[in-house]
Each structure stands twice: as structure tokens, then as C-alpha cells.
Amino acid sequence: MQRTYKTTGYAARQSSRMSSETYMNPSGETGTNPSGADGASLPDAAPVRFDTKITVVLRDDLEPWQRLNVTAFLVSGLGTVVSEVIGEPYEDADGVSYLPMFRQPVLVLEASKETLTAAHGRALSRALPRAVFTSDLFATGNDRDNRAAVRAVPTGGLDLVGLAVYGPRNAVDKVVKGARMHP
């Protein structure tokens, strides 16, 4: 069973000093933050519902350190090319700035090698933005060697240990069919 995540809107995550910010409403349209007189977001502001999904599928036989490493590498690929997945920068109450992160949750799943390979094929057939991590990358130590390791293997021969996919919710759900929630 797949869970649906609801996140608070951009404006609801901001400092109470801000009185009017742009936010994305549940239908995906932008508008002005409905805020009170003190600038704080109203508690009844509807949660943001994204029509897109970011999903990472990890092979179920990875060690815990490998799962974390693969996830970090995979999601970094999406953020560099698919700019709409990145939200606004953060700032704490003291005005200290922090880097922007994804604007929506990342769903992390696990699957067998066969299910992961099938998901890769479906992602390719739908031309969805994707990132791959192969078992060969555990033996390399830099970006140049990582790219060479992937380039050396034909698509059908990639020993995938992880896949990140971004796209319309329905399409991503079809791509990752058979994968289950990561424990």
C-alpha cells in the first residue's frame, strides 16, 4: 500500500516576520500567502498537493551505508537538471540563510533487482527524468570514474542498485510498480 504525503505550503514554512509570500496552492497555482495581521500563516491554509512525484528505488540487498550513499547521489542528479523540484532558500528566525532543498517529499522505496530493472525500463520508455546508480560505482572514488563506469556498460547490462525518477504522479507510480516502502 502506498502512502500519500501532505506537506505544508512554502509560506507556512517561513518565518513569522514575512507577511506576504508567494506560495503554491493545492491546484498548483501560485498566489499570495493568506496571512494574519502579525504576518504568520493562517492555520487553515490548505496543504500543498503536488501533481508530481520524486521517487527513489533502492535494491533490497544493499547495506545500510550503501542505501544512504545511493539515495544521496541519486537525488542530487534530479536537483541539478529539473529545476522545478527545488524550493526556496530557508532562513531561521535569526536571519541565518540555508540552501534551498526539494520543494516536495522524496518517496524512498525498495525492490528486488528484477523489479528495479523493470522500473528502469519503464522510466526510459516514458522518457522521465531519471538518475541511476550501478554497483560499479561503489568501487570508484570520483565523478569522472563514475561516469566512465556507467558509460562502459550497455543499458540492458547495467547492474542497477538505485534509480531516482521524477514526473507526473501517475506516471511515476506506474514506473515503480512492484516496489515497496523502504523500511
3D architecture notes:
The chain is α+β, with helices and mostly antiparallel strands. Helices cover 26% and strands 22% of the residues. It contains 4 helices and 9 strands. Strands 7-8-3-6-9 form a 5-stranded mixed sheet, sandwiched between helices. A two-stranded antiparallel sheet has the order 1-2. A hairpin with a 5-residue loop joins strand 4 and strand 5. The protein is globular and about 50 Å long. The relative contact order is 0.19.
Count of helical stretches = 4
Helix content: 25-40%
CA radius of gyration is: 19 Å
> How many beta-strand runs?
9
Shape: globular
What is the element string, with H for helices and E for strands?
A: EEEHEEEHEHEHE
Mean pLDDT metric = 81
> Can you list the strand order of the major beta sheet?
7-8-3-6-9
| Uncertain segments | 1-40
Which class do the helix and strand fractions yield? alpha+beta
In whole angstroms, how far apart are the ends?
A: 13 Å
Which percent range describes the beta-strand content? 15-25%
Largest sheet: number of strands, sense, barrel closure: 5 strands, mixed
Helix and strand topology:
Elements: E1 22-24, E2 30-32, E3 52-59, H1 64-81, E4 90-91, E5 97-98, E6 106-111, H2 113-125, E7 130-134, H3 143-151, E8 160-168, H4 169-175, E9 180-181
Parallel strand pairs: 3-6
Antiparallel strand pairs: 1-2, 3-8, 4-5, 6-9, 7-8
Considering the chains and any ligands shown, give keywords for the structure:
alpha+beta, 4 helices, 22% strand, single chain, 9 strands, two-stranded antiparallel sheet, 183 residues
